[in-house]
């Protein structure tokens, strides 16, 4: 079967790598892809927000399955368009994608089924929002309602910080909506669920590192590293999260006529064994899937295809009892201004337990150069998390890119 992956980051490279190993996969296409993906797949220039163009490409190239990587096409309804055109597609339709696109919508779904999450209120009026913040006090969490690439959230430890966050959101002009939340304490972890509208399958667990610098300091980023599994997500905590958070959410979406099909990424806060929902995303985490994919390999394609074809009830995953960890190398300055086009020298890696997944890279006159904020994901597996970490950092030390930086403490929470 020919496959099309939409996206061009580290997540999509990990997927292309995993899919290409599956004997059922013939040609793998990726739009737009990147320099690393080009080694596993055929990169194509295609507008990934245009369902009709994607369908035409699929017809011309005998594509039998489309995997949607990022959230933007999902929020635009691309998965609806592809399914309406008869194409087996992994990813929710526009209505179900609101679980990521609108924080206010997610709060409404949670309220309807008593899903444990931070108490919150949504405001469109700046004065009412300011009054609520002043009355509640800090710490408090201020979120812009809408897709903000992970940058719309301020965890304000003081009232002036909260006020500044409100001012910034309402400066966007009329129509701005803000969700103000109770500050939750605990440890964060991510639970990835595959759902086909009827059945669900736990795809894996991971922990991300959102801050740019060591010790969880510096600005928020898309994620600077991750590992899988997340030790805090014990079988008991996962069962509880499924029973109290995931299943009620999926049931509410069915009741609203918008069954969720795709990957539901539940960002959880766990305190004393009790999970609460921080947020949903409607796609795989990047860089979390880089670690999960290294552990699951080719079988990812089988479960995704089963999900897209409504056969998830038959799907199984075989887990090795191992660990994987990925370290992101980003361009100096990220998540702010940074250079592009810097040459990168990659080491020859012979060890199948190590993979370097590309994010922002491209070839310029045959040379690999940086082409984005997050650029490489140095990923390794091992019998223990410490072994996976050491292997990943040993490979990272061999990357020749003076303009790049990485955190040196990925995995610290689990490794102590
Ligand atoms: P979000 O985009 O909603 O995941 O928020 C980004 C990050 O902000 C989360 O990963 C948490 O670290 C933090 N955060 C969000 N909401 C809360 C909350 N209610 N309490 C504490 N931290 C939060
Ligand atoms: N790594 C966080 C995300 O994919 O949203």
Count of spatially separate domains: 4
Instruction: Tell me the span between the first and last alpha carbons.
Output: 45 Å
Helical fraction: 25-40%
CATH superfamily of the largest domain: ATP-grasp fold, B domain
| Tally of helical segments | 13
Structural class: alpha+beta
Main sheet attributes: strand count, strand direction, barrel closure: 9 strands, antiparallel
Overall mean pLDDT score?
96
Q: Assign the CATH topology of the largest domain.
A: D-amino Acid Aminotransferase, Chain A, domain 1
Low-confidence stretches: none
Q: Please report which band the strand proportion falls in: under 5%, 5-15%, 15-25%, 25-35%, 35-45% or over 45%.
A: 25-35%
Distinct small-molecule ligands in the complex: adenosine monophosphate, glycine
* Count of beta strands: 22
Give the name of the CATH architecture of the largest domain.
2-Layer Sandwich
CATH class of the largest domain: Alpha Beta
Query: How big is the Rg?
Result: 21 Å
Structure, explained:
The chain has 13 helices and 22 strands. The longest helix is centred in the middle third of the chain and has 21 residues, at 235-255. Strands 10, 11, 14, 15, 16, 17, 18, 21 and 22 form a nine-stranded antiparallel β-sheet that branches. Strands 3-2-1-4-5 form a five-stranded parallel β-sheet, sandwiched between helices. A four-stranded antiparallel β-sheet has the order 6-9-7-8, sandwiched between helices. With 416 residues, the chain is of the alpha+beta class. Strand 7 and strand 8 form a beta hairpin. It has helices at 10-20, 51-60, 71-75, 78-84, 98-101, 103-113, 126-136, 159-170, 235-255, 288-296, 299-308, 385-396, 412-415; strands at 2-7, 28-32, 42-43, 63-68, 89-90, 120-123, 140-144, 153-156, 178-182, 187-196, 200-208, 211-213, 217-220, 225-228, 261-271, 274-281, 323-331, 354-358, 361-364, 367-370, 374-382, 404-405. Helix 1 (10-20) runs parallel beside helix 10 (288-296), helix 2 crosses helix 4 and helix 7 packs antiparallel against helix 8 (159-170). The protein has four domains: 2-90, Rossmann fold (3-Layer(aba) Sandwich); 119-182, ATP-grasp fold, A domain (Dna Ligase, domain 1, 2-Layer Sandwich); 186-314, ATP-grasp fold, B domain (D-amino Acid Aminotransferase, Chain A, domain 1, 2-Layer Sandwich); 323-415, Glycinamide Ribonucleotide Synthetase, Chain A, domain 4. Adenosine monophosphate is lined by residues 118, 141, 150, 153, 155, 181-184, 188, 210, 267, 278-279.
